[in-house]
Each structure stands twice: as C-alpha cells, then as structure tokens.
Design brief:
In chain A, a hairpin with a 2-residue loop joins strand 22 and strand 23. Helices cover 10% and strands 47% of the residues of chain A. Chain A is mainly β. Chain A contains ten helices and 41 strands. The N and C termini of chain B lie far apart (63 Å). Chain B is mainly β. Helices cover 12% and strands 36% of the residues of chain B. Chain B has four helices and 18 strands. Classes of the chains: A mainly beta, B mainly beta.
C-alpha cells in the first residue's frame, strides 16, 4: 500500500526540456542550407528535430494521436498533457517551450538519445506504434525507474515480448497526409509455459498521391522480439527493430510565391521529368537496432536490469549541387517579379511564372540539357601528368549528403525499496557513437562525370591551385555515379553517466531527489585532406571533455485524498552539441574559442485535483537556460563570402502557466480544456565571432542584441476547448477548438548586430522594421475524432476498431505553421525584403481513417 | 606488389553495380533533348540593325525571328550579362539579366530570338537588344536587360556546334557593320608601352584598354574587364593574330576577346 502511495505521490514534475528548441531548430534548419544560395534548396521540414516525449515526429504524432485517443484516456494521464500532445502538438508546441534535448527516452531501460543533438532516436522505430508506446512517462505521479529526470522528462518504452499482451492485429489506414495507405500486422504470443515469448510487428506505408504537391513517401518498419524467462527470476530478451523511411521534402516558401501562385501549398523542390514528378530533396533513414536485455528480479520490489544495443545505419538527404550554372531553385530571389524594378517587366514575369510550370518548379530537362552540351577536358586527373579526361562534365548533379551512424550502448539499473518506504533506484550507462558525414554522387543527370573541386574556394585562393581540391592527395579526381566526394569526417561521441534517485512519502508529505553525473566527450576525425586546410582537415582533433551534473528536489503535500500541491526545483548542465562547437566541420576542425556547457535551472509549482469526475492540473514554471552556443553559416553579402558566426552566451528565460482539466459533465460526456500561457524570451546579449569560411580568418567580434527578444518558432500561448462523448463503450467522439497566439518568426541574429544595422538608427522606421521580429497571426484550428468499436465475440477479444481523425476541419489553407528570417541579409541597402522570411503552412483539412482487426 | 588481375577488378565492379542497382532507384529516364532542331529566321540581323536610329529606342512590335550563332558569352567573365549573336549578315549584342549565361548559351550554339516585345537601343553607338527602357536616370536612358525568367519566352535554343570562322579584316576596314561580329586581325602587335602588361586591373576590378597596332601604324583598343578570368595575364610582346568581338564606344574602335586562345602572337614584331 505504502509503495503504491509512494508511486502515486512521488513528484517528478513534468519538466519538459531544452530551452532553445525552437530557436535552435530554426537554426538547425538554416544550418542545412548553410550555404544559402549554393549548396542546396531552401529549408525543409526536419523530421528528427520535431520530436519530444509526447510529440514524436510528425508521422508518429498523427499515428499516435489516433491510437491513443481511441483508447479512452487512462486515469493516470495528465489532463494538461493529454490535450497538449494531441491538440497543441499540431502546431509543434512543446510544454514550457522546450524541446527534447533535456528529455531522456529509454527503451528497455537503455537511454536512446542521439548525442549529436540530444533528441531521441525516434527514426529507428517510427511506424511501430503498436509496440513502441511511451506509456511510462515520468510525471507528477510516476518516477521512471530507468533514468533520473532532473531537468527534463524521461520516459521508458518496454518492448520485450514478455510485456506485450498476447494477440494479433491487422490494420489498414487511409490518409491524405504524408502517406496514403498503411498496413500493419502485429502478433504477440504471450509467455508460454516454458517461459518463451515471441513478438513481431511490421508496417508498410506509401503515398500514391499526396495532398502536398511533389511529396511522395514510402517506408516500412519491422520489430521482432524473443524472450526466455527462467524460474530463477532471470528474464532474457533479444529484440531487433528498424524502420526504413523515404520521404520527399517540402520546402519553406516566400509570401511572394503564395501571392503569385495563389496557393499556400506551393512546393518548389520538385519538377517534372518525362512527365513524372521528381523531388530533389529526399530524405532516407534506416537505423536498425539490435537490443539485448537481461532482468534479474531479487524480489517483488528489487530488480536489476541490463541492456546492450548495437545499431548501425544510414541516413541521407539528397540535394542539388551546381557548378558554374544558374541557380536551379525556381524561387531564387533573382527570378521573382519583386526583383524587377520596372513595372512592365514585373508584370511580364508574373504572367510568365503563372503560366509556365517550368518556371514554378525545378526544370530537370534543362539540367540534363546543360549537362549534355557541356564538353570539357580535365587535365592531370588524380594528379597524374598527362592523364586527361574529356567528356560531358556535369554542371548540375544530385548529391547524397550521407550520415552513417554506428552506436554501441550499454545501461544497467537497479531498483529497490529501502526500509519499506524509500523508493531508490540507480544506474549507469555508456554510449558510444560515431557519425560519419560524407557526400556521394546520386545522379549525374546525363553527364559523364563531375570533378572533385570546391567551387567556393575558387575565388578565395586564385593563386593557389591546391585550394580548390577537396582532396589534395587525389587532385582533380573524376567522379562517377555513387562516388564519394567533397568532405568526409566523423564526429565521435562518448558518454558515461551515473544517476541515482530516491523518494519517500510520509503521510501527507512526500519528497524526492534525483541526481546524475556524466562524462561526455566528442571530437572530429577527418579522413580527407582538404585543399584549403590541408592539415586541420585531416586526422583527429583534440577531444572536448565535459563533466556535467544534474540535481532535483521536489516536495509535495496532499491536502486531502484528492487535492495536492507540489513544488520542485532542478539544475542541470549539458554539453553543447558538436554542431554548435565546430565552425565548419566539413573543411576543418576549428572550434569556437569558448566552449562551455549549458546551464539550466527550473522551478515549478503546481496544484493537482484528481477525483472521480474531475481531473485538473495547474502549474506555473520559471526556467532559465544560460550559456547556450550556436554556429551559423551563410553567404554574407557584406563580405561577399561565406562566413561562420560562432555564437556564445545564449540565454533564455521561460515562464508561464499551464492548466488542464478533464471534467465529466454528463455521464457520457467529458469536457477537456487546456491552456498554456508562456512568455519565452532570450535574456542575454549574445557574443559572436565572425570568421571567413574559406580562410578561417577572424573578421569581427560583435554583440547580438538579443536581450528580451521573443523566442521564435511555435506559439507560446494556446487554448483548447473540447468535448468527448462516449456511447455504449463502442462509439467515441471528440471535437475540439484550439486557439494559438504569441508566435514569432525565428529571427535572424545577424540582423540584430551593430554591423548589420549601422548607420540606421534603431528608433527610425527602417530600424524598427529591421529589428522587430514578425509576430504571426493568431489562429484557430478545429479537430475531430470518431471511433467505433465492433466486438465480434462476447469476450471482446476479437474486434474491429474503426476510427477517423480529422485535423483542420474548417479546411483553412492559410495557417502558418512556422516561419523564419533568412540568414542572408542585404548589408548594402538594409532592405529586409530583399531576402524575405520563409514560411511553412499547415495542410488544409487532413484525415486519417483506420481500421484495425484484433484477434 | 602483385597487381590485381582484371578478373578481380571485374568482379568488384560487377558487385558495385549490383549494389548500386539495389541501393538506388534508377527509375528516372534521361529526358529527350529540349533543343529545337530547325530554327528558321524571317529577318536578318543586318535588317534588324537597320531598324535602329542611334541614340533612340525602338520597340519591336512585329513577330519576327532572327537566328544566329553565339560567338561570345560570359565564359571567362570578360562579357557581363550579355551574349553576342551573329548570322551571316551581321551581329548584335543581347543584354541578359543573368549570370553563368554560358551554361545555357555556349559559344557555337544556334539560337532563335523572337523579337516581338523586345527593344533596340545603343550604348555608345553599340547596338543592343533588351527588354525595355530604363528611365531611372532621365539624362542617360538605357536598355533593360532581358530578365532571366523571360529568357525562354524570347530565346529558343538550337543545336550546339562550333563557332563560326572569324572575318579577317584590317584595322582600317573596321566599321559599324562589323559590330558584335567575330573578327580577326592579322599581323598586329601591342603598342610598346602596352606590352607585358596585365590585360586588366583585376585587383581593383577595373577594365583597361591596351592599344593594338598593325605594321602600318593603324591602331585599335583592346578592352578587357577587370572581372575577366585572364585579366591578370600579361599582354604578349610579339606579333601575330587576334580574334575578338568588334565593338565601339562612340567613335572609338574596340576589340574584346573571349579568352587568351584568341591571342596568337609569336612572330617577331615588325620594324
């Protein structure tokens, strides 16, 4: 009984995580386009950055939404989180404005985090929702036995065959979202008399025609698990799972394009090739995981669990690369009517674009034609005198930007109850990850070869013929299909952590503490000697070592059996990600000068009501994250060169309140409402060191006047109001209206510097226009859900489960999901509209209809 | 070390091919050529040039087409935002608002230009084709270049071929009828004060004029852009032939080369 109470009362405040999520996300996005006008097409949705404990990647969110909602909300579910996950998640909102780099997701007790960005390794199991359910989320009521949650939340997923409920299911889904058809099959044997259990699940999905033009996706996912349980209380489990996903990307777009083409769903990243849609920006991921788990139970209250996993796989994005040829992007600023000064030409261009698909989309035929007519001779191929190659040299290619990942992970944890009332758990973990980054030629687009030269170095080192060589040991290398080229380096991460936590409930009063210590290191290992930096591009860099800690204390007090109040505070330090330390890892191992861990603090106070008819949760939070780091790279119109900005001292302050209620107003009807009112701002003046990408010369050191600027990205305020109606335990309806506000563009820090602004006076009209980040309009979103359960036998063990979920029921087309200011800035004329912001828009009415047969 | 046998190589290559085939999608066919095979003019460049009155601007309202071969572009950045087109009757400069024009419009490619809607004008008596008149500086109206978005509306690409033979002339024969045409001068050399000097000031990105003289003392300027990729090279000392596009600035005769291949000077200077 006491234990149960303990479990119930242990306060693990739902501290969400990472302060910088949205800002950072946008920057990460920008980072992909780092070479703004040159390396690739504009920003894409990045699926792996949008995950959190609840809101996984977009696909998963939508799947989850349906799966979870169809199972009537369980009693332990937090009324705020329930609404936030389903309703606020559509706008990518995350609790307290934080992302997931402070969160911990464990699978069979093994932390499954990607050390390069701190997010969960969702891509390994996307689509396997039948098995991978995050039902052990730490919350005010539960402490995760497998990880300490100091600042941030943790959740465990148990995928052992033993833990799956025996039975089978077959499912089919039909949707106009990222995929059209989806089939799944899951079978769990349950535990046999001899202690064996077997479990499997597989899904496949594809999109035949998507509501988003130019986007077709396909993928499959698999999971197998075999368990053997011994009477000696030893449980062995072996699991193997993975997901292979191929997705086409949708690019962010300009308001000018929206107006020009009269649609918010314009996607410039595809074009017709022989009448077929071809998207230049595809993402592909496959990271299978082999996971072994052993659990030894000493008693009902005491166990020890150890897991080891190996994972090896690949993700890559495709993109266009081009050399001495016009920019292939149809919405490149010079191609748009706004670039024309003359009204007649403006009108002619408008008419031309509106009536010619080739001007709206990628013109693949043109790329082939240009490649076909470009005969060139390359001398001294591979550095060999007299070794010349003549042929069609590609001016456009489609390249793969590959990231090959290898992981080894180990974790063990021990849990017991001391003195009958103190819940205690502890564990250690080790994580080793090597991420290799390199490029390969995906398609020469009709040409015979491409040359391994760094075109951006051409102007930087006109007198140094070695400068343009991506590989000085094999100069002038000729590239065919599939050949590796450009950069090739590996970021090596090692992380060891130890944690412990304890909690106790004494009558009405409860306490809990958690602490963790970790040792993390990462370094760069270059495999190629680059012509610009022959020595610093190759070999192992010096390792960055971080010792980090986290600590949390929380107290709670039960006013009576239903009402509780709680208070908690936590501190945590976290190492920066390698992305924010290395200035230009593709060419060299140069790092920021000052490298420090991020420093987080959170305090939360809350009230909980849990009765038969009403569940309510009100909390207020104050969160500060200091000493954040970032690296931005982009084409700088002032220096006429690619520049890297190494940014230090990013400070954030988030405070606000969250409230959720789930009240039974009629026997079959519940009201569900929630609100999040946040104010999330940067609270420090950031410091940037500006270096030239091609020479590593430090050009400037300056302040970014970011203090009190809002954090851009998702809305900071949201309200949701909805009803659900249950009938006969067979029908279930939900209808909810959501309102979002206080959403800002992810603004460009470069514009908030004296360098960019001078000599414009900040208080002048232009000054204000340059400095004030755009606030996106408030918006409504109406969502609905219907499910029908048809039992086929009396026990209900065989049944059909049919559901329909509809998002954006009012079919509003012009709802911005997010937006960002381009990093490229018009330093000469200070015109904020020369490189205007880009936006993502929400899809209009979208639905998923699914039918599940369980037997 | 024992060299790897051919057989081993072949296995390896086969294996690679199989892997590639399995790993990548090869569903995208190479598209058919978008090049128009037959282009037919109904106006000669000479007749087009005849429509222009120096110092004025004329809009072309008839649906005429000229066809010619490209003889110069921005390959070496000595020409900027323009290509030079010639047929057997004459040549003309086409102002185009794009960079890396040589990708679409390589030297030797045949193209057709639909003239309706375009404008004729001149810059220092050098006749040009553009898409409008820029009056932003009323004292010096100029032609708008054709916007990149409208290239395909006006310009039809034909087959790529070799550049035509230059017209061999004497300096004294040069006149406006040779504007924007590929010409060749034989037996010329750089004036002594202009030998072994860079073609252009690449450091300050400024154009420079160098004087070419023939053995009779007739001269013409060679003008080179500060952005030209060969601008930092030195002018030759010896005598020989030079190819280039004939241009004028007012009454000044100029020659503009495409690259250093155009300069073949390796005979002794005349006395």
């Amino acid at each position: 009984m006491l234990l149960k109470l303990l479990f119930t009362f242990v306060v693990g405040c739902p501290l969400f995580s990472l302060a910088q999520q949205y800002h950072k996300k946008s920057i990460l996005l920008e980072k992909m386009v780092l070479k703004d006008s040159v390396y690739q097409l504009p920003l894409q949705h990045v699926e792996h950055n949008s995950s959190s404990i609840f809101v996984l990647d977009e696909n998963l969110l939508k799947d989850n939404q349906d799966n979870i909602t169809s199972a009537p909300l369980s009693a332990s579910r937090d009324p705020y989180k329930a609404v936030a996950a389903f309703q606020f998640g559509a706008m990518r909102m995350q609790s307290k404005g934080l992302g997931n780099a402070y969160a911990t997701i464990t699978v069979n007790g093994l932390p499954m985090m990607d050390p390069s960005n701190g997010s969960g390794q969702w891509s390994s199991w996307t689509g396997l929702n039948e098995v991978f359910k995050t039902n052990e989320v730490s919350s005010v009521f539960q402490q995760n036995s497998y990880a300490a949650n100091t600042l941030g939340e943790s959740a465990n997923i148990d995928i052992r065959a033993t833990k799956q409920k025996a039975g089978s299911s077959f499912g089919y889904g039909f949707s106009n979202r990222l995929y059209t058809h989806r089939i799944s099959f899951t079978h769990h044997t349950g535990v046999s008399l001899k202690g064996w259990a077997f479990s499997m699940s597989a899904t496949a999905r594809n999109s035949t025609q998507s509501a988003i033009p130019g986007v077709a996706n396909k993928g499959y996912a698999y999971y197998f698990s075999i368990d053997k349980n011994f009477l000696s209380n030893d449980f062995f489990s072996l699991s193997f799972f993975g997901a292979n996903m191929q997705t086409d990307r949708q690019s962010s777009i300009l308001k000018e394009s929206v107006k020009l083409l009269n649609t918010e769903h314009y996607n410039p990243s595809w074009g017709f090739q022989n009448g077929r849609v071809r998207n230049a920006n595809q993402a592909s991921t496959h990271l299978p995981v082999l996971l072994m788990t052993h659990e030894h139970r000493l008693s009902n209250q005491t166990f020890m669990q150890t897991s080891i996993s190996f994972s090896k796989g690949m993700r890559f994005n495709t993109g266009l690369d081009w050399y001495h040829t016009p920019d292939p992007r149809p919405d490149y600023y010079r191609y748009l009517p706004s670039y024309q000064q003359d009204p007649v030409l403006k009108e002619q261009e408008t008419f031309a674009i509106q009536n010619n698909t080739n001007l709206q989309q990628l013109n693949w035929h043109r790329f082939y034609e240009i490649n076909n007519s470009n005969i060139e001779k390359i001398d001294q191929v591979d550095g060999i005198l007299g070794n010349a190659v003549i042929g069609k040299r590609a001016r456009y290619i489609l390249e793969n930007r590959n990231n090959a990942i290898q992981r080894f992970q180990f974790a063990t944890c021990f849990q017991t109850v001391i003195g009958g009332s103190i819940f205690f758990s502890t564990g250690i973990s080790y994580h080793e990850q090597n991420s290799r980054y390199y490029k390969t030629v995906n398609d020469l687009l009709g040409a015979d070869f491409y040359v391994n030269w760094n075109q951006f170095a051409e102007s930087a080192t006109p007198n140094d013929p070695q400068g343009i060589q991506f590989d000085v040991n094999k100069p002038n290398r000729i590239l065919g299909m599939g050949d590796a080229f450009g950069y090739d380096y590996t970021i090596k991460n090692r992380r060891t952590a130890i944690w412990l936590q304890a909690s106790q409930q004494i009558n009405r009063f409860g306490w809990s503490i958690a602490s963790e210590f970790s040792y993390a290191s990462f370094w760069r290992s270059g495999a190629i000697s680059n012509g610009l930096f022959p020595t610093s591009s190759i070999g192992e860099s010096q390792a960055n070592i971080f010792l980090n800690k986290g600590f949390k204390l929380s107290l709670n007090y039960a006013l009576d059996g239903r009402n509780r109040v709680y208070l908690s505070a936590a501190v945590k330090t976290r190492p920066p990600s390698p992305d924010n330390v290395f200035l230009s890892p593709r060419t060299r191992d140069t790092q920021q000068d000052l490298i420090e861990s991020e420093n987080g603090f959170i305090a939360e106070m809350g009230y909980l009501l849990q009765s038969q008819k009403i569940k309510c949760h009100l909390s207020t939070y104050f969160l500060s994250i200091q000493q954040g780091m970032d690296v931005l790279g982009f084409y700088h119109d002032g220096y006429n060169s690619f520049m890297n900005y190494g940014i230090n001292g990013i400070g954030q302050l988030h405070y606000g309140l969250e409230f959720g209620i789930d009240a039974q107003i009629f026997p079959n009807m519940n009201l569900q409402a929630a609100t999040a009112i946040g104010n999330h701002v940067f609270n420090s003046r950031q410091f940037a060191v500006v270096t030239t990408d091609n020479t590593a010369a430090i050009m400037d050191q300056l302040f970014i006047y970011a203090k009190n600027y809002p954090i851009g990205g998702a809305p900071q305020q949201a309200f949701s109001f909805g009803f659900n109606y249950r009938f006969n335990y067979r029908w279930f309806f939900t209808l909810s209206t959501n309102f979002f506000d206080r959403q800002f563009l992810s603004w460009n820090p470069i514009r908030r510097t004296a360098e960019a602004l001078y000599p414009i006076i900040p208080a002048s009209d232009l000054g204000k226009k340059l400095l004030q980040p755009e606030r996106l309009p408030a918006k409504y979103l109406v969502n609905a859900f219907i499910s029908r359960r048809i039992p086929l036998n009396k026990s209900g063990s065989q049944l059909f489960d049919i559901s329909l979920s509809i998002t954006n029921l009012l079919n509003k087309q012009d709802l911005t999901l997010s937006g960002y200011e381009q990093l490229r800035f018009d330093f000469d004329n200070k015109d904020p509209n020369k490189f205007p912001p880009k936006y993502f828009y929400l899809q209009g009415l979208n639905f998923l209809c699914s039918i599940n047969y369980r037997f | 070390m024992k060299p790897m046998s051919i057989f081993q190589h072949r296995n390896l290559i086969c294996l690679l091919f199989v892997f590639q085939y399995l790993a990548c999608e090869r569903n995208y066919d190479a598209p058919p050529s978008e090049i128009a095979q037959a282009l037919s003019p109904d106006l000669s460049i000479k007749d087009l040039r005849a429509k222009h009155v120096m110092g004025k601007f004329e809009q072309l309202t008839n649906a005429n087409t000229i066809v010619g071969v490209i003889v110069a572009n921005d390959q070496s950045d000595n020409f900027y935002k323009s290509i030079i087109l010639q047929d057997t009757t004459g040549g003309i400069t086409i102002r185009m608002d794009g960079i890396k024009l040589n990708a679409n419009y390589p030297i030797g490619r045949k193209i057709a230009i639909h003239l309706k809607g375009l404008w004729l004008g001149d810059y220092g008596k050098m006749i040009q084709l553009g898409s409008g008149v820029d009056l932003s500086d009323p004292a010096y109206p100029s032609l708008f270049p054709i916007p990149q978005t409208l290239f395909d509306q006006y310009i039809i690409k034909g087959e790529a071929s070799y550049e035509p033979k230059p017209i061999v002339l004497n300096v004294t024969q040069l006149g406006n009828q040779y504007q924007s045409r590929l010409i060749q001068l034989n037996q010329v050399t750089f004036a002594l004060s202009d030998t072994a000097k860079p073609f252009a000031d690449t450091k300050n990105k400024e154009s420079l004029n160098r004087t070419l003289i023939d053995c009779n003392g007739n001269s013409i300027l060679l003008r080179t852009s500060g952005y030209a990729s060969f601008g930092g090279s030195n002018t030759p000392v010896l005598l020989g032939s030079i190819k280039g596009i004939y241009s004028v600035f007012g009454s000044t005769k100029q020659l503009v080369i495409r690259d250093l291949e155009d300069v073949q000077m390796n005979q002794p200077r005349c006395k």
